[in-house]
User: What shape does this take?
Amino acid sequence: MGYISWIILGLLAGGIAKFLLPGRDPGGLIGTTVIGIIGAFLGGWISTQFLDHPVTKDFFDGATWLSAIGGSLVLLILYRIFFGNSRNR
Assistant: This one.
């Protein structure tokens, strides 16, 4: 998969992560979208490096989607932990 495919996958994975983890995010829609894109890259890297499951070139591979959504969820949770109360200040 090329970079454009990962960006599209990240946008979709960020939306799915937001759906699975609803609530108010400090970054809003743009922040969640960026987290989704970075999470997709991170999930793919973790899958390749540590789980010994290289990302295939197929956009519709289930493991690719799970790694992208998982990476997005992890980043979204970390973002909320570190920056979750920034709107209250």
